[in-house]
Amino acid sequence: MIRRNAEDTLRRMAASFPVVTVTGPRQSGKTTLCRMTFADRAYVSLESPSNRTFALEDPIGFLRTYNSGAIFDEIQRAPGLTSYLQGLVDDDPTPGRFILTGSHNFSVIEAISQSLAGRTAVLHLLPLDLEERCRFPGTSADRPHVMLDGGYPALYDRRPDRDDWMGAYLTTYLERDVRQTLNVGNLLRFQTFVRLCAGRCGQLVNLSGLGADAGVDHKTAQAWLSVLEAGYIVWRLPPWHGNINKRLIKTPKLYFTDTGLLCHLLGIRTPEQLLAHPLRGAVFETWVLGELRKQATNSGRQPEFYFYRDRKGLEVDLVVPTRPGEGVAVEIKSGETIGSDFFSGLARFRSIPGLSGFRPALVYGGDEGEERSKGEVVPWRETALFLKRNIRL
Q1: The pTM is what?
Q2: Which of 163, 264, 311, 328 could staple 320 via S-S, CB 3.0–4.6 A?
Q3: Which domains does the chain have, with CATH numbers?
């Protein structure tokens, strides 16, 4: 297995906190990262029925067995354990004593926030970024394959058939995580809902429309979307308001965490299909935002990413404020040739009083970068480097 970019952050957190919690999607590499980083630590999977029963029925005896420290994998399977961990680490706050992993964002964060507030650092591990992906020998680095394959490590480590693996991943997610998190009586209808979300990737969230198309009401659509977020299948990009006195859109936009899964749900199986697909721009935008998001989370930060849209039609794909009136404004275009109008939205955005301090940039599907008077041109391969250069992580 390759080295993950979040390893240094994980070690830094473990040197300061008695507990470190690593969350993220299933199959994002949480267990492998923790076991490689802390190879001398006892490893306990709470997916194991015997370990889970022990932890649930006798938490004090269970923790006494691992008093010197351990990696507890899939902590959401025994969330009550965190209450007993609290007393243990209060008595002995040795840094890095316990490492927890969990795949359900809501249940894991709720458990640790109630019991381990101030005692645990939280690291969100997302699927592979481009740099990590290229560490696997023989991996194609051309743009269509990068989008199609996505970032789940198993696809590069074990080399299964991509479509078979994605299908199995969705089935496992639907049958296990969804049933555990929410009582979904009709999994087929929920699966339809997931595919409808894929078709609306990069668009404003419309719960009424999603629900109507899936045959459920608004409240059910809201609950189902929350489940997808809890499992790190999708995420919502909030609109940016700043202190601007304008009529702005207040609805978030919907994105998928992994473009490989997104392409699978859209029925895209080959590079040719991707290049001809009407949502190829949305897939590319999803990948760029995902790459930037991974850089932030790998550094241990929650990304402060937004988009801008007003009711007159002005839109900027990504706004990253760094201080009042300053930051980065990014337009994302999948084309390999830079159009004359690619910077027009950025120019209009920066002409708004108080926003001239935002650095304009264009991330596009080409391979040549350059500095222009209208802004920086960033080739898709350098998306992560752009964030590192312009945002202090």
Answers
A1: 0.94
A2: 328
A3: 7-124 (3.40.50.300), 128-393 (no CATH)
